[in-house]
Amino acid sequence: MSNLIVVGFDNAADAFKMRLALAEMQMQYLIEMEDAVVVTRDAKGAVQLHQAANLTAAGAVGGAFWGTLIGLLFLNPLLGAVVGAGSGALSGKLADLGINDQFMKDLGATLTSGSSALFVLVRKSTPDKVLEGLKSFAGKGRVLQTSLTKDKEDELRKLMEGL
Hints:
Elements: E1 3-9, H1 12-27, E2 31-41, E3 47-50, H2 55-73, H3 77-94, H4 101-108, E4 116-125, H5 127-133, E5 141-146, H6 150-160
Antiparallel strand pairs: 1-4, 1-5, 2-3, 2-4
Helix pairs in contact: 2-3
C-alpha cells in the first residue's frame, strides 16, 4: 500500500529541490515513488501543478509511433503518424496517474501566494536513510498531510519543522 505525504514550503524553490533530492534517492533504491508533484500558488492566486512526467508529450510520442506503424499497414504512414500523435497526446492529457489532480488543486488553493507544496506518493522506502538524506531541508517545510503511521509521521514532522 502506498503512502501519501504532503509537505508545504514558503517558496517554490525548496519544493522543487526536495523533489529532486527524492528522485536522486530513488535512483539509489532508497525510495520508490509512484508520483511526485510540486503545487505552486502564484501572486495572483493561480494554482499550478508541476508533474514530474509530461504525460501529454509521452502520449504524443507513443501515439505517433503506433500511428506510423498502423499507417504503414494502410499505405499512409504520414497520416497515421499525425492521427496517432493527436490521439496519443489527448489520451496523455486526460490520463490521471498517481495522485488525484483535483485533490492537489483543492489543497493548493489553501496555500498562501508564493508558497508551494510537494505531494509524494511513496510505494516503499527505507525511512531512516530517506530522513537522513532530507536533513538539508530541516526547518524549511511543514507536514500538511500524510497517511503514514503516527510514529513515522512524527519523525518526518520533527525533521521538516525543525522540532
